[in-house]
Amino acid sequence: MPKATKLPSGSWRARVFETVNGKQTAKSFTAPTKAEAEYLAACYKRQPKKDKTVMTVREAVEKYIELSSILSPVTIRGYRDILRFAFPELMDMNIADLTDNIAQAQINMECRRQCERTKKALSPKTVKNEWGLVAAALRSCCGLTFNVRLPKQPRKNGSLPEPGKVMQIIKGSPVELPCMLAMWCSLRMSEVRGLMCSSIKGDMLSVDSVIVDIDGLSVRKELAKTDKSIRRVYLPAEVKKLAESVDNYVRYIETGEDAPLVPMTRNQIHHYFSRLMKEHGIDMTFHDLRHMYASIALNILKIPERFVMDAGGWATPHVMKQVYSQSFDEERRRADRAMEAYLNSIKE
User: Fold this and answer.
1) Which of 2, 22, 188, 209 allows an S-S link to 41, with CB 3.0 to 4.6 Å?
2) Hey, what domains does the chain have and what are their CATH numbers?
3) How far is CA 78 from CA 71, 213, 222, 229, in A?
């Protein structure tokens, strides 16, 4: 059995030497423990010799990304980030050398890898997304699949603060409008940023574009996250009044020159909101405001689920087709009014 040696990094490496085309080469297998490294090397050594595909995992993923050029810039950027950071040892392995055991060991190592930005272990969701790209690339380019176990996402038991308290905290702040749009209209941050002054049409709000950050630049996408995300939502009078008071909207009414309704970057919204919540001892994210909307609608007001899903863009395209023709019937309007009345009752 190949013997492993300890590296300066603290990991263990076992090597298998073989002769290819008259030249001696070495395959390295690195793992957190001596036993794991030696086990991986032994598994490789026991493989039957065969003609090997001369392609690394990295090359397969790069090829897959090239074939995925029709996807959104955000998706492609995410793929390239995975290619850059994920599975640092797996990426440069020859595809023909991979086995279920080696793939599983690499996934286990990735679960322990720290994110460079947060210095914390990667979340199960991140590892699943990373492996999802690798698995899709190997299946697409080489027709290979692997039997592996992925980490499970732990259930969150946290609770949201009282809506009235949150509304008091954000009142008069630079993020009052984006927060109200998220909490009262169930908009994502990218949807809030994508709104134009012309998006307001009477007491309705058209949500048909988003602004996302790509390589540090704000980019407008005319298509939202999913088909269901492209929607019209009710704009409560309180939020409409707030929106109509912003400088860009006043200028739009006076001159007809359209402009973003919320001209703030993602970092600005995140900074102001996080600081306000921290000052008041509240642990929540901006996105939690959408969860708050759903909790009020479903748990307190008992609004039918299909209306909540329609308003917040949470449904699949199939569900969208089922509810689209009924989205603004009288029952839906009553649901909208019930939400507005409740939020008005707690804002003081």
Assistant:
1) 2
2) 4-142 (no CATH), 163-346 (1.10.443.10)
3) 11, 11, 19, 20
